[in-house]
Amino acid sequence: MTVMKTSMRNFYAHKGRMALSAVAVLLSVAFVCGTLVFTDTMNTTFDKLFASTSSDVTVSAKGASDTGETTSDNGKPPVMPASVLGAVRKADGVKSAEGTVFSTSATVVDADKDSLSPTSGAPTIVGNWNGNDARTMEITDGAAPKGSDQVMVDADTADKHDLKLGDEIGVITAVGTHTAKISGIAAFQVTNPGAAIFYLDTKTAQEALVGESNVYTNVNVTAAAGVSDAQLKKNVAAEIGADYKVQTAKETADANRDSVGSFLDVMKYAMLGFAGIAFLVGIFLIINTFSMLVAQRTREIGLMRAIGSSRKQVNRSVLAEALLLGVVGSLLGVGAGVGIAVGLMKLMGMTGMNLSTDDLTVAWTTPVVGMVLGIVVTVLAAYLPARRAGKVSPMAALRDAGAPADAKAGAVRAVIGLLLTGAGGFGLYLASAADKAAEGSLWLGLGVVLSLIGFVVIGPLLAGAVVRVLGAIVLRAFGPVGRMAERNALRNPRRTGATGAALMIGLALVACLSVVGSSMVASATEELDKSVGTDFIIQSDGGQLMTPQAVQAVKSTPGLERVTEYKWTQADFTTPDGKTLDKTAITAADPTYATDLRVETVAGNLADAYRPDSMSVHDKFAKDHRITLGSKISVAFKNGSTARLTVRAITSSDAVIDQGAMYTSIATLKKYVPADKLPLDDLVFATAKDGQQDAAYTSLKAALHDYPQYTVRDQTDYKQELKDQIGQLLNLIYGLLALAIIVAVLGVVNTLALSVVERTREIGLMRAIGLSRRQLRRMIRMESVVIALFGALLGLGLGMGWGATAQQLLALQGLDVLEIPWPTIIGVFIGSAFVGLFAALIPAFRAGRMNVLNAIATD
Predict the structure, then answer these.
(1) Under DSSP, is residue 163 helix (H, G, I), strand (E, B) or coil?
(2) pLDDT in tens, 798-817
(3) Ranges for the ABC3 transporter permease C-terminal domain (predicted)?
């Protein structure tokens, strides 16, 4: 009980100094809990949606996926004859059955040809209005479509694009473009995560989406009273045979949940990883806080020991303070986490993914995980300072000698740090020298972990040398004040090392990712310059295939010398060694593709692969299956017949663009795949006539005005798009890493604040002999700057080493250009100095306000 009273007294006595440590715990716990609440809420939203939109049993056409996705490589949804509906209705246990037709491969535009598709990545769904949708949608304005000239739109899409009754929209599919006017607006009765939904009448949907009548993509079946979904599925399957996919409501919902869940899991674990980094950084802050508090209470600890307190009691007293800190910080963090989750939901709403706070889900495990993590991390971080406090002998403490310096422990620490750093460096060397990316990745991971731990352990040893160098460059210009700031930073190398290490971790990751991102852009840019021999690339940013009408619009554009179509499909390969490879990708293109993309060959000529009944393979595939020029491969095309193709070229596997692709001609594909099953173009290449590039670029954009889902890019555009995509990804990662950097800044603030208290008497004496308040504040700011620059120098150097090693692994995939983004690195380094200045504002202000006489009288 006495231990707890002492801990409580000390906690409240230093509540201001504990606040920043509590904030670090709060931020880390809040990020973990916010991530869990956000992903749980998304899961709840999708679960409700899938459960409400799934009929008791669903019959799908052959080729449809388990999730109900209807996009196929020919741009039309897989369908079944209308006769299936009649057969289903005859099955025992069927109360009702209704045929539906819908597609997720359509693009919808308004009267100005602007796309109405979501920008969040959610699908655009066009289908017929049916009874199943009527259960989940309520018509709030107008009426359901009743003719080919009518369409109904969901309320969220109508609000977003300011659509109203009577507005004309166009539905663009592989069949053509169908125009209609809005006859009604329907609102979701459950939360819509962002999909745009358009309803046509059944006959119009069949003709607009499929191009033929009397077909359905699905049949929705409702069970009669007392009939289970499982029994109904069995009865329906027995009636219609094995040519169709039959699923219960649970199976359909589970398939949809698994599809969405894989994306949510990636997002959740990525965010939790960044929260873990923030926790790691917070450990340094807590260790520093308790180390300094223990040092400042040396005499108090001596008195406690002198009147009978044991080492264990002193130890428990410090750990009890840490426990209280962890409990308070974690409790606040759990509450803040719910706020973060709501903020993320609002942010997603701005991007088009609507999430209702009515579905906010806080599982009982979330606060438990947050509390346990926050408390355990805090107590573990405080263990070393508590252990050192228990070692203070009563007499040494009463003499204010502080914790005994352990030279042997320092030497051991230095040796361990050097060994770990060396082992990490050797791991990075093995990664850079690896012949296979998988093997190199293991060495890279090991090297990163060991080198990071090594730098953390060896930090105090490095602090002495690095701070002196930084002091000579940065601080000496400030005269005696700068020299005092340098000495203050060197006074306790362990403290400086731990404070700098907290900042080092975040900046190391920033530097590593910057090097990797810049190297990827530079490598891809070089490969584009070297390999691409066409002027324009036309494709969809949303993944839609090129409709025949859009391809024809490209071909009709004036000023073009040639247009190359590019298709992708799958086939089952039977190679000369007797092996059968199912669902192997094969690319079909026009013969001019050999000119548009200069692919390196190791044998033969790529142009010969576009001869009739010919193909190419890449060298790794050829080696694995004993294939040489002239070898015959049996190729069973998807939705087509089997061909015997002759290998006319073997390409290099080191290419960046189309790496590992195997080519044949579109003419060969057409020979073995029926016209109605032929895949649409993934993209189209266009080359202008000499001297007409600018005019052709303008003409292409005009020709595709009616097809906003496709983008025309020249090589400059393509390079910029690649740079922007990688830049957006890096900015997202930097934003998540900002949490760790904020915690590191709090560590600098806390270290300075506590060191000011620790040096109260010294500051009073300096003021008494003539040091002005302005000089005192400058000294503290300079100390903060040099500590921040120390952490930045270590972090940036370490991160560039990691990034350069990672680039060597990317070189195995053809990305062989190493580029150091010096503007970013220099900017971060300079920014670290401003971080140091910012962190010192409050401690410097408080130091300047000290009363000189009171400071001198301080024990």
Answers:
(1) coil
(2) 999 999 999 998 888 777 88
(3) 274-394, 736-851
Find, among 64, 69, 73, the residue nearest to 681 by Cα.
73
| Contacting residues for 557 by C-beta, under 8 A, at least 6 apart | 686, 696, 699, 700, 703
| Cα-based distances in Å from 159 to 83, 111, 165, 352, 711 | 39, 16, 12, 11, 26
> Which residue would you say has higher pLDDT here, 326 or 338?
338
The token pair at 170 is 């166009």
CB atoms within 10 A of CB 510: 25
CA pair distance 111, 162, nearest whole angstrom: 12
Amino acid type, 386: A
The DSSP secondary structure of 358-372, one letter per residue, reads GG----THHHHHHHH
The burial of 603, by beta-carbon neighbours within 10 Å (0-12 exposed, 13-18 middle, 19 or more buried), is given as middle
Please spell the DSSP secondary structure of 384-421, one letter per residue.
HHHHHHHH--HHHHHTT--SPP-HHHHHHHHHHHHHHH
pLDDT tens digits, one per residue of 405-453? 455 656 777 888 889 999 999 999 999 888 887 888 889 989 998 998 8
For residue 750, the cross-strand partners are none
As a whole number of angstroms, the distance between CA 153 and CA 163 comes to 9
Q: What is the pLDDT of residues 216-268, one digit of tens each?
A: 999 999 999 989 999 999 999 999 988 898 999 888 888 877 777 777 787 78
Tokens of 761: 């008497």
